[in-house]
Amino acid sequence: xxxxxxxxxxxxxxxxxxxxxxxxxxxxxxxxxxxxxxxxxxxxxxxxxxxxxxxxxxxxxxxxxxxxxxxxxxxxxxxxxxxxxxxxxxxxxxxxxxxxxxxxxxxxxxxxxxxxxxxxxxxxxxxxxxxxxxxxxxxxxxxxxxxxxxxxxxxxxxxxxxxxxxxxxxxxxxxxxxxxxxxxxxxxxxxxxxxxxxxxxxxxxxxxxxxxxxxxxxxxxxxxxxxxxxxxxxxxxxxxxxxxxxxxxxxxxxxxxxxxxxxxxxxxxxxxxxxxxxxxxxxxxxxxxxxxxxxxxxxxxxxxxxxxxxxxxxxxxxxxxxxxxxxxxxxxxxxxxxxxxxxxxxxxxx
Length: 350
Ligand code: IPM
Ligand code: MN
Prior knowledge:
Layout (H helix, E strand, L loop, with lengths): L4 E9 L3 H19 L2 E7 L3 H7 L5 H7 L4 E6 L9 H13 L4 E7 L17 E7 L3 E10 L7 E7 L2 H17 L3 E6 L5 H18 L2 E6 H10 L6 E4 L1 H14 L7 E5 L6 E5 L16 H13 L3 H14 L8 H14 L5
Parallel strand pairs: 1-2, 1-3, 3-12, 5-10, 8-9, 8-10
Antiparallel strand pairs: 4-5, 4-11, 6-7, 11-12
Bound molecules: 3-isopropylmalic acid and manganese (II) ion.
The site of 3-isopropylmalic acid has 4 residues, from α4.
């Protein structure tokens, strides 16, 4: 009997969320059996149905329970019959803020056998990670509306950046760069956002000189161009919440789409952290068996890595990668089975 048993909360959510999470779970179970750890899954039925039934996106009592688990695996939240923002703000962003998940780590990696929309790129050409600040910026919800509906209506949405918040994110990014090629690129818009941009720039220089990483800089608009034109120039990108949101959708697109885009919402200092595919709930294909579970599986690999199960994390990533060529020909479940088999046996799915 293993002494390593992890308590993982599962927020499968809406649309394709439950389908892809079921496969990720299967793969993690296979990894546990091979590498000698156990899983204690705790399911939560948060999402659109719960909100319709009770009016609650994230009850306080559930939040308190979630603080006690080792990690959280989330599928996707949101459905067209729930007004925009209710579940995004009330559930996902609330978890990011309440659990202080200040890093959103998003690998942008082109895997063999996955077609990129960019002409002539090979897997080695796209392999970077975006470290997105995850608790500040325009996401904090500071602002309001006055004279609503009238001719003088005005709305503000204030972006809040703190030195401490920016610095801890930069430290994480610098440490990540040191484990990789040692190149850190700050992405901001210092030519227009002179206040926040200056804070980021000074903090980034200080952290870079302290940690010895090479610091580079790109404006957010130019970074979009480079991501398409010359993605190989990036190793680790560090950026604010909103730029990171936008840039990582572009990153997912250049790396072959949302089917393989994984993310980790981390509090590197304490557990639990939250792992989720970058994709949404895709209600249009829910229940058709066409959802690609690989992004959820790769998010589960990040989860295992964060729990310290490095070998298992690598095996899960390798299993997913081995199953990718021709993945479109398999159903969600068949693909999950192939990855789980590869992980269990340590070989390729065939
Ligand atoms: C993401 C999503 C979220 C975000 C939404 C659903 C609130 O787009 O994780 O990238 O904007 O952060
Ligand atoms: Mn997004």
